[in-house]
Structure formats: C-alpha cells, structure tokens
Amino acid sequence: MDADVLIVGSGAGGGTLARALADSGLRILILERGDYLPREWGNWDPQTVFASYRYHTEETWGDGNGQPFHPVTGYHVGGNTKFYGAAILRRRPTDFQERRHVDGVTPAWPIRYEDLAPHYDTAEHWYFAHGAAGSDPTEGPRGPYPFPPMPHEEDVALVDTALRAQGYHPFPLPLALHRLEDDPAQSPCVRCPACDGFPCLVHAKGDAELCGVRPALQHANVTLLRNERVRRILLAEDGRRVSGVETDQHRYHARLVVLAAGAVNSAALLLASRSETFPNGIANRSDQVGRNYMCHLNSACMAIKITRENRSIFQKTLALNDFYEDSGDPDYPYPLGHIQGLGKVTPALLHAQRPRWPIPMTAWAASHSVDWWLTTEDLPSPENRVTLDERGGIQLHWQPKNRESHRRLCAKWQDILQKIGFSLVFFQSMDISATAHQVGTCRFGDDPQTSVLDRNCKAHDLDNLYVVDASFMPSISAVNPSLTIMANAIRVASVLRERLRSS
Ligand SMILES: Cc1cc2nc3c(=O)[nH]c(=O)nc-3n(C[C@H](O)[C@H](O)[C@H](O)COP(=O)(O)OP(=O)(O)OC[C@H]3O[C@@H](n4cnc5c(N)ncnc54)[C@H](O)[C@@H]3O)c2cc1C
Ligand code: SF4
C-alpha cells in the first residue's frame, strides 16, 4: 500500500479534502497532473493570461460534432482555483430542493442546506471568506463571516446606492482573499485589478494551493506528487473494490481512492478504466458516468456611463440576487439567475481580448465601463455528457438549457443599468469552451440506477472509490460552485475518517 487515501487532483475538491484529512495521521497521497503554477510577472499580465493563454492547457476537446476547441482550464497544483474570481457563495437552501425552470425541473439533492452548513463554515474560515451575513435576501441561516465584506470603491458604491434607490437589494459579494482591510500595510492581498481569471502573483488569493494543499503538506503523513497524470483506475481482483491507479510512470495502491480531477476529467478517467467487469467504464453500471454535465449560462457585461470614468481598481465587490428565485414578472414565473461584479476590464485586458479594435476606442470603453458577470442555472440532461473518442480524447456534448431565462436576465439588467445612467450596455455570452463552472457527470443520489455516487460520494458500484470534485452535483444552481465543492469535500472527509478509524 502506498497510501490509506489516494487523492487524484489538488483543486477545490482534492486540495480541500487533503487539508481536512491531514491531521488524522492517515497516509495521504495526492497525485496531481500539473506542477506548481510558476510565480512570475506574467501572472498579472493580460497578454500572458488572456492572449497567449500561458496557464491553460494546450489540449483540445471535441464538441461532439467534430469541432475541436481549447477548454478554459489549466492543470496546476490548486486546480482551477488558481484562476478563479474568488467569489465564494453558499448555495441557497432552495438550491437543494426541486425547482421549476422554464426548460424543466432541477432535482432535489439527497442532503439539505443544514447538512452542509457546518462545512460551509469551515471552508469559509480556511479560504479567508469576506462577506456580510444577512445582506443577501436569498441566503440561508448562517453566522458572521470570518472577515468583513470587501468595501466598494467609489464607482461601485454609486451603483449600489442607485440600485437601492430603485428598490433592489444589492449585497457585498462574498470573496476568498487574504485581505486585511484594517491593516493594509500588512495585508497579503493588495486589491489589484488582476484577480478574476488571473493567478495571484503574491499568493494572497484563497485558492486550493494556499488554503488546501500547503496546510496539508505541513503534516508529515501527506505527500504531493506533481506531474503525475492518472490514466486509469485499477480494479481489485474481487471486482468490488479498486486497488489503486496507474499514471504514465507508475502504479500506486491505496485503501481508498478519491477522484478530484474536475467534472470532465474525473468522468473521462472512469470511462477510460474499462474491464470485463465494467465494460462501459468503472463505476458505470448505471450508464450515468459522464451524463448530466452542466455549466452555467454566463455573460460578461460592460456598462458604460459616457460622462464618467470608472476609476475602480478592485471592482468585483457587488452582487444582486433579486431575480434568483423568480423573474418578478407575473407572465414568467421562473428563476432568471444571479449577477455579480466582474474583475475590472482594463484597457490592457480589453486589448488582449479584442486586439483588432482601435486602441483609442478600447481605452475609452474600458476606462468608462463598470463590468458584470451574469449567471443563469443550466439543467441536467442525460444528453449533455462527456464521452471518449476512439483515441481516448474528450468529447463534450453540451446544449445549455434555460436560454430564454438568460436572455431575460440580460435584458432586465440592461434596462436597470440604463435607468441608472449607463447608456451603453454590451454583453458577451460564453460558449462551450468556457468550462470554468463545469459540474455534474457523476451525480450523487440514493438510487444506483440514476446516480453514480451515493450520498457520501462513494461510487454505488464499488466499496472504496469516492469522487469529491464538482462532478457530484445533481444541479448547478446559479451561484459559483467552488465553496460548495470545498464544503462537500470537508463533509466527505469526516465520512472517510470515521470509516478508516473503524476499520
Ligand atoms: C477563470 C475562472 C474563474 C472562476 N471563477 C470562479 C469564482 O469566482 N467562484 C467559484 O466558485 N468558482 C470559480 N471558478 C470555478 C472553479 O475554479 C471550479 O469550480 C473549481 O476549481 C472546481 O473544483 P474541482 O475540484 O472540481 O476541479 P479543479 O479545481 O479543476 O481541480 C482538478 C484538479 O485535478 C487535476 N487533474 C485533472 N486530471 C487529472 C489526472 N488525470 N491525474 C491527476 N490530476 C488530474 C487538475 O490538474 C486539477 O489540479 C472559476 C474558474 C475559472 C477557470
Ligand atoms: S493581490 Fe488580492 S486582488 Fe490581487 S490577485 Fe492577489 S488576491 Fe486577487
């Protein structure tokens, strides 16, 4: 045995799980496909991050119709939290229940908000969560945040005031940053404009490397092996357990194996691990592995007030859930989604993404815009799925649901912004390559016919295989997924501790 618990992947799920198990004395082995993300000036350079995509994978996935694309994903210690915008929201209590949408119904989860709440508390402490309890009208019962909310800069505060004057309920966006607002001279986070989508040059973002893997590695019983890409999961002779995994270089054996390679890659690994016992891929007797892939319907929005420059540096501090539960329109009784600030679109960033636009126009637009990120919930569908082509390459089939709700969310936001003085409002919607918020593919549930994992995230078909990344989610909600992945990993850690202690 190389480990008691072998974890594949070191992102939001795997990195957090490692920290949650670290003080147990169990031998923990993390196998990570990538390396530490290099610390260099390019971390904060829009050209490096958004034009040459230095930190994204170069691999291509297929869209199921023969079209290759580069997914917005990277392989590093800390996983995609290295790039995340650090918006860490809890799911609403209603997100755990069935909910009717224009294109269908989201399924209820086998656990409730109350089951996850204590683990949300822990995750928020580990990840330096800033926020204001009670400010979001849709949130569940909770105690105070570990850190006060990140204050709005002047131009965002003006939007906040204007929205309140219109009768809306904006609130401070919960954020995972190691920021000491009352002692800026000592603060690791310097409130820079290159946070959302960028790695943090000064290691102050609450990502899974800083808040999961590094604290775990303080314990002698935890080992991280980098540049170890897992290719296959090994089935034990009895066909009811897994014995370990195979990478390009080695085989590793463990009492328990936990997948945390991300929703697409964990499904691909299971599908690639075929055997006589599991001809369709390991843990896939139900034929559910890879199905029910979901990704948020997202649009970025630039709202321009012609008469005023936006001098904000760290702009991503405001959010709005007024259309989260329903649209507010009697003829359309469905949820529309969530709105949050986007990292400031600077002239350099806009130029990196739109190199053909005339530079004076780019500079003017970016210096006058306040920028937003709009999210609508996708729905699970068995046809939206991960498959492998004949060479083992990833094929991602995705037709998002609830497009009409997303269209209405954008239209409503445009209307509101225009009423408060932003006469020019532009939207850019995301396509299949924007896999940042990938979830589903191995959903948990009580019925082995319709789910891959049980409520403890153990594969129904196997006695010692678990999955703790974004795959487990049966519905995506309209809030960002990371905090829920982290809290769930902490929940599963307590199950694993109990199990290994008693055996
Ligand atoms: C630009 C961007 C912005 C985002 N902003 C936010 C935000 O503000 N808030 C939020 O909540 N979420 C955000 N997200 C999403 C968030 O990063 C993900 O939801 C989260 O990281 C998913 O966690 P995970 O554990 O499922 O996978 P990941 O964090 O992606 O971790 C998977 C890990 O597995 C490794 N791996 C993959 N395959 C293998 C293999 N075969 N063998 C070994 N290792 C493997 C990967 O290298 C990676 O380290 C953002 C993502 C991006 C890209
Ligand atoms: S310094 Fe702060 S704002 Fe800038 S990238 Fe790091 S965590 Fe984000």
Architecture overview:
With 503 residues, this protein is an alpha+beta fold. It has one domain: FAD/NAD(P)-binding domain. Helix content is 23%, strand content 18%. The chain has 10 helices and 21 strands. It has helices at residues 12-22, 46-51, 113-126, 154-165, 208-217, 263-272, 347-353, 359-368, 403-419, 482-502; strands at 3-8, 28-31, 61-62, 68-69, 99-101, 104-106, 129-130, 171-172, 175-176, 222-225, 230-235, 242-247, 251-259, 297-304, 318-320, 338-341, 369-376, 385-388, 394-397, 424-429, 465-467. The strands form 6 sheets. Strands 1, 2, 10, 11, 12, 13 and 21 form a 7-stranded mixed β-sheet that branches. Strands 8-15-16-17-14-20 form a 6-stranded antiparallel β-sheet. Strands 3-4 form a two-stranded antiparallel sheet. The longest helix is centred in the C-terminal third of the chain and has 21 residues, at 482-502. The two termini are 15 Å apart. 52% of the residues are buried. The mean pLDDT is 97.
Keywords for this entry:
503 residues, alpha+beta, FAD/NAD(P)-binding domain, seven-stranded mixed sheet, 23% helix, 18% strand, binds flavin-adenine dinucleotide
In terms of topology, how is this protein built?
Blueprint: E1 3-8, H1 12-22, E2 28-31, H2 46-51, E3 61-62, E4 68-69, E5 99-101, E6 104-106, H3 113-126, E7 129-130, H4 154-165, E8 171-172, E9 175-176, H5 208-217, E10 222-225, E11 230-235, E12 242-247, E13 251-259, H6 263-272, E14 297-304, E15 318-320, E16 338-341, H7 347-353, H8 359-368, E17 369-376, E18 385-388, E19 394-397, H9 403-419, E20 424-429, E21 465-467, H10 482-502
Parallel strand pairs: 1-2, 1-13, 2-10, 13-21
Antiparallel strand pairs: 3-4, 5-6, 7-9, 8-15, 11-12, 12-13, 14-17, 14-20, 15-16, 16-17, 18-19
The site of iron/sulfur cluster has 13 residues, from loops.
